[in-house]
Each structure stands twice: as structure tokens, then as C-alpha cells.
Amino acid sequence: MTRLLDAAAIWKRFGTLEVLQGVDVSVSPGECLVLLGPSGSGKSTLLRCLNLLEPIGSGSIMFEGREIANTPRKQAALLRRRMGMVFQNFELFQHLSAADNIAFGPIRVKQTPVKQARELAHHLLRKVHLPDKAAAFPDELSGGQQQRVAIARALAMDPVLMLYDEPTSALDPETVGEVLAVMQELAEEGMTSIVVTHDVDEAVFLADRIVIMRPRPGRVHAMMGVDPPRPRDRLAPAFDLMKRRVMRAIDRSLAEEQPRQDSGPSNLSPWV
Ligand SMILES: Nc1ncnc2c1ncn2[C@@H]1O[C@H](COP(=O)(O)OP(=O)(O)OP(=O)(O)O)[C@@H](O)[C@H]1O
Ligand SMILES: [Mg+2]
């Protein structure tokens, strides 16, 4: 199948720090690719390179069949509309209601008529299970609700690819599930996505494939297909088995980086 996005041999440095050293990642239409790695391994930088927020040093980024790596700034902004970005800290406009946050992009950027943009906002709020929060301001919403508004805001621009950068890591544990449920529903509807996380459980829950980054910046350690059938049941033996496979791969990536200390059995916070 033709990849929606196919990035090859991506090199990126900040000053003398090599942050990406020849990284290859790709995602096919309808697929969820998870980038799993510890803090500082370059996950956010990679996402920012893929949506052209950061220029790369060298490499190729094919998106919808076209090379985009060297796109001039103005056209990059147009291309970026095809990719919805969701951040760890939501980054909603605090002075706008949920509905206005969602309608903002279509009205300002796509010149969608206000009435139509409002209808779209209400439709998307239903989609993220917040039908009654149109008038609520971000500080009146829980973290999980704010993140779902942020997802709806990204969807409002009608992207073909969603990029999520640690979408649940700023959330209280009780609201993580509602955000993951929305991401999972979107995936089941065929939305293509790349999700950055350092949470193995979340990776196995969402991913069709997992890319494991090395602890030091810049390199991919392994790529793994995730096979438990959907919808995934965290209590199923297949889920637990898959998680153990991922943990073993992470252990191997750690062992290759540094002389092994006897760390005992794996836990669920592999990098801390
Ligand atoms: N704009 C920048 N200028 C200089 N160095 C940067 C910049 N952005 C990131 N870095 C450095 O690049 C490395 C990778 O950062 P990045 O944010 O991509 O990691 P990450 O895997 O997303 O980490 P985290 O899980 O903590 O978010 C880090 O050492 C970071 O300090
Ligand atoms: Mg990051």
C-alpha cells in the first residue's frame, strides 16, 4: 500500500546536538503508528520535522506522494493544515469557548462562513463526547475534556493525518481513558495517526505498529507490529503478552546503550 507519509534518513541537529540520526518512519492510510521512547530521545522533534515546524538537516519526507522536506515556509503552512496536531498541554485559546476554539481555524484560515463553522464545532463536540460543553471555557473543563476539545479543533481543519504529542501525559489518570477512547474511535473510522508517548500500555492499546526510540537522542531501536485484535482488551492475555514483548525490546535498547545493571523484572516505567 502507498504510504501516506514516508520519512527516510532524517537527520536533525540543534547546534552540536544530533537529535535525529538517520531516522526512518512511515505510516500507511488508516494506520496508527506510535513513537515510543524516553524523554530526550527526539520524539517531539521528529513530529515537528514531519509537519515542517522544524527544518531537517537532510533526508526525505514524502507526504501524499510528494516530497515536502524542502517546502518553502508559505506552502509549508498550507501543507500543515493537512496534518492535525495535538499537544501535551492542549494549547487551547483560554479566552474562547470550546465551540469557538474549534470554529476558529475554519473561520480564520479556511474562510468558512461563521454559521457553518459553528455547526461543524457542534458536530465535532458530539464526536468527542462533549455535546454539552460548547459554551464552556477551557478553565471550566477537566484536562481530559480540554484535550478532547483540542482533538476536535484539529479535526475541524479536516486533516488526513493526526499527530499527537504525548496527548495524555498531562492528564489526571481518571481522564486518560476518555481521551484514548476518542483516539481509538477515530482510528477505527480510518483516521491515520502518529502518536508520541512513553507509555507502553497506551502504545499497545493504540498502535498498529510501534517504533521504539533509543534512550539517547536520535535513533530508532526497533519497529514492531501490534497484533491483538481490536477493540483491545487490556485484561486479555494477548494484550499482556504484547506489552511484555515491547518491554523486552525496550530492555534490549537500554542494554545496547549502557552496561547492564541487574534491574530485576521489567516494570511499566521502563525509562525511569
Ligand atoms: N529548539 C531546540 N533547541 C535546542 N535543543 C532542542 C530543541 N528542541 C529539542 N532540543 C533537544 O533535543 C533533544 C530531543 O528533544 P525532544 O523534545 O525531541 O525529545 P522528546 O523525546 O520529545 O522528549 P520528552 O519525552 O521529554 O518530550 C533534547 O536533548 C532537547 O533538549
Ligand atoms: Mg516531547
Quick take:
The protein is an alpha/beta fold. The chain is built from eight helices and ten strands.
Q: Which oligomerization state do the chains in this entry correspond to?
A: single chain
The proportion of residues in beta strands is 15-25%
Cα separation of the termini: 38 Å
Biggest sheet architecture: 6 strands, mixed
Coarse morphology: globular
Radius of gyration: 19 Å
- Provide the helix percentage: 25-40%
Which regions contain 5 or more consecutive residues with pLDDT less than 50? 262-267
Question: What is the SS-derived class?
Answer: alpha/beta
H/E series, N to C? EEEHEEHEHHHEHEHEEH
How many beta strands in the DSSP annotation?
Answer: 10
Number of helices: 8
Q: Strands of the biggest beta sheet: in what spatial order?
A: 6-7-8-3-9-10
The distinct ligands, each listed once, are: adenosine-5'-triphosphate, magnesium ion
Q: What would the average pLDDT be, to the nearest integer?
A: 93
